[in-house]
Specification:
146 residues, mainly alpha
């Protein structure tokens, strides 16, 4: 059974996990707490509100992940990454907000949205995710910046 490991690079969560793995280098340029928080909010929307499941393709077969597997997948890939960054953010990184890293993080989301088909990958309209992203950014600002 051949698994294409590059398939997962179409998901922003994969890119965020790569940034977190190399966090000792990437935290200087990207606000990992912000990206992880936004991904946590977006994944909550995709997982539990609309469409409520994940679709993956392996070996030309379509797999729909829902129920308990979806919950485990969501916790491992989204919540644990956010908790890791939240725990380490004030411990190892700057405690004040750097607006340049925040802007670079926003640019990453914009670049990602330009190069992938959001509707095809996440089965959600781009506008829906944009609204959630803006709302989550406001919540992030209230919780972590003010």
């Amino acid at each position: 059974m051949k698994i294409d490991i590059f398939y997962f690079l179409i998901y922003f969560t994969t890119w965020n996990i790569i940034l977190v793995i190399f966090h000792k280098y990437t935290h200087k340029y990207i606000n990992l707490l912000y990206t992880s928080f936004i991904i946590l909010c977006l994944s909550f929307y995709i997982s539990y509100i609309k469409p409520g499941y994940y679709i993956y393709y392996f070996n030309n077969k379509k797999y729909i992940v829902k129920g308990l597997y979806k919950l485990i997948f969501d916790i491992v890939n989204h919540l644990l990454v956010f908790i890791f960054i939240l725990y380490n953010y004030h411990k190892y990184y700057r405690t004040h907000i750097n607006y340049n890293t925040l802007l670079v993080s926003i640019y990453l989301f914009i670049i990602y949205a330009l190069f992938v088909d959001i509707q095809d990958i996440y089965n959600v309209k781009f506008c829906d995710l944009l609204y959630i992203h803006i709302f989550a950014s406001i919540i992030y600002y209230i919780i972590f910046i003010i």
